[in-house]
């Protein structure tokens, strides 16, 4: 009996010892972290570069309205879409740079006026489906700007009745951002050393690196006639427009936290 009590007390003492050890570790870690935060400082580094976009993209669409013969409607619309894609490939646009983005088939209704019966009750028949509208949309990526104007005009000649959202961007933007961030880190390191020398302190280890501000602006133009530029009206063959991509700024900002020795 005494041995059972002894084992119980030893077990309880072991649990208390483990709890005390855990509390001690937590207290030490918390105190150490607080002291490190008190004996540290942060600097910000920024960098930016101006680049000329190397890729252009634009959306195109074919909208066809017809009667209730869905097969005829789809055949007509798909024929135009295939002619556009064939035109793009003929002009050296690779398969991976042409993508279908939407296929929307919707009914067209005709509202029937309400009438009154002999008792003065209004009778409003439901709207009647008189046909359907089919819209197919796609996006094309252009890497050779010398043919961009001809492509914009050519897709319309091939059957597109909607062209919108011409935009310029950088193909490998991640690599570009990495390059800019690297320059921002170098500038932050120089700033940290300068501040430490000015304050008369010894620069400690680098404790953390954080992104502060990394915007990327892709220039967007519109190509079309009428409206707000988002939808191009159906037009006949027109001269190819002159397109200039301009330049874009890519900016990165980082925060470096250093310890103080």
From TrEMBL:
GO terms for biological process: DNA damage response. It holds the Pfam family SIMPL. It comes from the Bacteria. InterPro entries: 26kDa_periplasmic_antigen (IPR052022), SIMPL/DUF541 (IPR007497). This is SIMPL domain-containing protein. The lineage of its organism: Bacteria, Candidatus Vogeliibacteriota.
